[in-house]
Design a protein that fits this description.
single chain, alpha/beta, Rossmann fold, five-stranded parallel beta sheet, about 10% strand, disordered N terminus
Length: about 220
């Protein structure tokens, strides 16, 4: 489940003395691998999906609210969020997806604000899977799109999440198209090769972002 830039972040969230790069891409594009590579260069990463997972840990207010809205079936035997069950529900019904977003987005917004305010770095990467769906660049200075062909997306997601074609297509239908993402990109990383190729591409972008931040 992803989150859009406009709803999560507001203009006062960003430390404008630091270059902020919004990293986005469709499901299965390899956003996590790209952000992990930036992290190996010492760059701070704020990932809204990771923040969302933290917010729905057992005992968190957001999890209790989700159970109130969607019922006890959204929990597994250990009392944790049953993400596959909830994913099927929200991607099959846009109204239910909006209800879930209404619970999570304000909390994610505040967490991102707090963490951005505490950063001290030449630039940071803000991972927002549905950044493009906001229809605006939002508060980030640049947009980096991780791009792969749609058939590659489908194959990766089916293998990773054990979903069938119908489920993957529902997820893709709820996201911006590949063309829409590329249309707003300042930078594009084509992630259809091996890890070494990805690392080289990230290293080039790292040097570019350091130059833009006045650090080279």
């Amino acid at each position: 489940m992803g989150f859009d830039a406009d709803q999560i972040l507001s203009s006062d969230a960003i430390n404008f003395y630091m270059l902020s790069v919004g990293l986005t891409g469709g499901i299965g594009s390899g956003k996590s691998a790209v952000s992990d590579s930036f992290a190996r260069h010492g760059i701070p990463i704020l990932d809204t999906d990771i923040i969302a997972r933290e917010l729905v840990e057992p005992g968190q207010p957001a999890l209790r609210e989700i159970v109130e809205l969607f019922g006890p079936d959204c929990l597994d035997d250990q009392g944790r969020l049953n993400r596959p069950h909830l994913r099927r529900r929200v991607f099959a019904d846009p109204e239910q997806r909006h209800r879930l977003e209404a619970v999570l987005h304000p909390r994610i917004r505040q967490t991102v604000r707090d963490r951005l305010a505490a950063l001290s770095a030449p630039y940071c990467i803000v991972v927002i899977p549905l950044l493009v769906e906001a229809g605006m660049r939002g508060p980030v200075q640049r947009i980096l799109v991780v791009d792969v062909p749609v058939d590659t997306q489908m194959a990766r997601v089916k293998a990773r999440d054990r979903l069938d074609d119908t489920q993957v297509k529902q997820i893709l239908a709820a996201q911006a198209s590949r063309e829409e993402r590329l249309a707003v990109a300042d930078d594009v990383l084509v992630n259809d090769g091996d890890l070494q190729q990805l690392e080289l591409a990230v290293a080039r972008l790292h040097r570019q972002y350091l130059q833009l931040a006045g650090q080279s």
